[in-house]
Amino acid sequence: MERTFVMIKPDGVQRGLVGEIVRRFEARGLKIVGMKMLQMSNDFAKKHYEVHIGKPFFDGLLKYITSGPVVAMVLEGTEAVAAARATMGATNPAKAAPGTIRADLGLEMGRNLIHGSDGPETAQTEIALWFKPEELLSYSRTIDAWIFE
Ligand code: IDP
Ligand code: MG
């Protein structure tokens, strides 16, 4: 089983879309193994988005991501990283495939509602940045046999 990191951005919280977004991951079968709400500091946001420092959109991204509370979670399941990215849709909501979170709920790149790790290695780094080991739970659900073969 793979784990990935997903975060509902401030626009998702402000627009009352936390339930709608979490619902889509749960409906797909992904298991929530960690979840918390917080407002990112500038320093923490720079750590999270370190790879984007210096890019033209970075200042706007920093302002956006620190502008209000976010909901962070770790999801577990078969190919969780790729599955979560597919459920989120492309970075630009205007070009994302219909049926994805970004296409169905958003329009612009700088208000694209959700972050998700882009690969298994990034997922491990981001999970370690956001969660202490004791904040992640291993448990089984009675429905697991109907989701995992
Ligand atoms: P991702 O979130 O799909 O992995 P990244 O390229 O890692 O996309 O970019 C991180 C975030 O930075 C995006 O989700 C988006 O919010 C923001 N971003 C990226 N490119 C642009 C841009 O050209 N304009 C405005 N915001 C951008
Ligand atoms: Mg990214």
Please provide a written account of the structure:
- The structure is a single chain.
- The chain has seven helices and four strands.
- Strands 2-3-1-4 form a four-stranded antiparallel β-sheet.
- It has one domain: 2-Layer Sandwich (Alpha-Beta Plaits).
- The chain is globular, with a radius of gyration of 15 Å.
- With 149 residues, it is of the alpha+beta class.
- The chain binds inosine-5'-diphosphate and magnesium ion.
- The site of inosine-5'-diphosphate (IDP) has 10 residues, from helix 4.
- Inosine-5'-diphosphate (IDP) binds next to helix 4.
What's the helix and strand layout?
Elements: E1 2-8, H1 10-14, H2 18-28, E2 31-38, H3 42-48, H4 58-65, E3 70-77, H5 80-88, H6 101-105, E4 114-116, H7 120-130
Antiparallel strand pairs: 1-3, 1-4, 2-3
The chain binds inosine-5'-diphosphate and magnesium ion.
Residues 52, 57, 60-61, 91, 109-110, 112, 115, 118 line the site of inosine-5'-diphosphate.
